[in-house]
Amino acid sequence: MTCFTGLSAFPITPASPDGRVDPVALRALIAPLAAAGVDSIGLLGSTGTYAYLSRTERRRALDAALEEAGGRVPVIVGIGALRTDEAVALAQDARAAGAAAGLLAAISYTPLTDEEVFEHFSAIATGSGLPICIYDNPGTTHFRFTPSLVGRLAQVPGIRALKSPAPDSDAVAGQLDALRRAVPAEFRLGFSGDWNAAEAVLAGGEAWYSVAAGLFPEPCLAILRAARAGEAARARALNARMQPLWDLFKEFSSLRVTYAAAHNLGLCRTDPPRPILPLSEPIRNRVAEVVDRLALA
Amino acid sequence: MTCFTGLSAFPITPASPDGRVDPVALRALIAPLAAAGVDSIGLLGSTGTYAYLSRTERRRALDAALEEAGGRVPVIVGIGALRTDEAVALAQDARAAGAAAGLLAAISYTPLTDEEVFEHFSAIATGSGLPICIYDNPGTTHFRFTPSLVGRLAQVPGIRALKSPAPDSDAVAGQLDALRRAVPAEFRLGFSGDWNAAEAVLAGGEAWYSVAAGLFPEPCLAILRAARAGEAARARALNARMQPLWDLFKEFSSLRVTYAAAHNLGLCRTDPPRPILPLSEPIRNRVAEVVDRLALA
């Protein structure tokens, strides 16, 4: 068991409108995740709005998370930045603070070549000594990692795992096979995209990096444990029960839905960073209805 | 004539590897643009790597550009940022420094809805009082402005112009027509994408926002002036002569080619910000050969 297997729960990061992290509110979100027994905390992921927070505020969030969960649950922290030197500094911060690993996306403005991403990741792994999980998130970065590039990166000391969006169930076995052939045996392959994650774990995915688990860890843990125990029918039944939430995630983005749910439940009064807007009241009501009907809270 | 018509020249922004702008090198790039008689300087555009520079360094670049060109040529400056509050601050900086206008892209990490982009742009225009040109650049932002959204934004006081990528020549008249029907008569429609810009100006585009002109203003001015005078055959012939440069832009990106050309010519010794890598030596040699053959320098 490493921090790159099992269920990784990705909470939102409560912050003021001007981007100052609220460590008390963040700890209140993290405490139940640690208590539920998730395998890791995925701090400052995309849903944790890392891209919108300064280095100072990211360090503030990390310190709070480590104080709350550090002794019990490993913390994987988003270290992505547009500039290589900034990402190196964030990775150094993360290692100094005591994070278990860094989650590194290929954020871009000017579209990047494979060689540029390879050099970017190598510089960050080498410059920090922090264990790194490649964060493949083309929906936000518009860069797509090929198995060949993942294989090259897996040769770089410190680059240990991949988090990629789970494809539809008919494609996941092929994708896992192509990736597995490209990387060493000890390299860990995990998936995001909550709506397809159960099938990805059933197909052999070693981790589920979950937005839903950042607010509702128990039902996600139940799905993951059934899938890892090979109880496919049970995993699928538990997952099917979550479909109304997955449908909201797909329609409005998991980030916006999670903020609305946290708001509805009184867990967090902050909105996402502008320009991202809170969902409208009718949609927030739909989110509340689903959370209530599934007895998630 | 406003700053949103004619030829706008977009230079690169010389900076150190850790992101500190070199004002002397920047002024040396801007002086010949002003002397050539371009209609505006497009400072800190995508090629000017605004997305990779801090607020302090962007202000340093703007002050240098205004000192060099301010009295002679209006300076339009990139004010885009991921956060709304940061973009407001950059727009306020630009207005206080004396920029003629701000160029505002819909930078995103979490993909944005039309409503989010509308609110983002409105907040920046209202919060700064700076005249704003909408910067439609889906190649870097992955957000696409519809004519309908441009029309809504054109109603916001201060939002005055659009810079969008010139489509292929068979599509430009239709695109211009759709946009023109969506905006007030005084709203200015201009184009980027050097390889398609001549046809876009011939079709009625009011400005050419040009990367090539940031280094080679004369041949671009000749094309623009012929096109605006209705001398279509002459404009097309002058443009056809530039095709080897356009081909390099399309293959390697205008940003990377411009850095290589500036390097080859001894105009600027700095590389693009990492993770963007300088072009390899064989490709730099191809760039040098084209610059030499076209007698651009």
Automatic annotation (TrEMBL), chains A, B:
Cellular component per GO, a single term: cytosol
EC numbers for this chain: 4.3.3.7
An annotated Gene Ontology molecular function: 4-hydroxy-tetrahydrodipicolinate synthase activity
Protein origin, superkingdom: Bacteria
SUPFAM superfamilies in the cross-refs: Aldolase
Keyword set, alphabetical order: Lyase
Name of protein: Dihydrodipicolinate synthase
Organism, as annotated: Methylorubrum extorquens DSM 13060
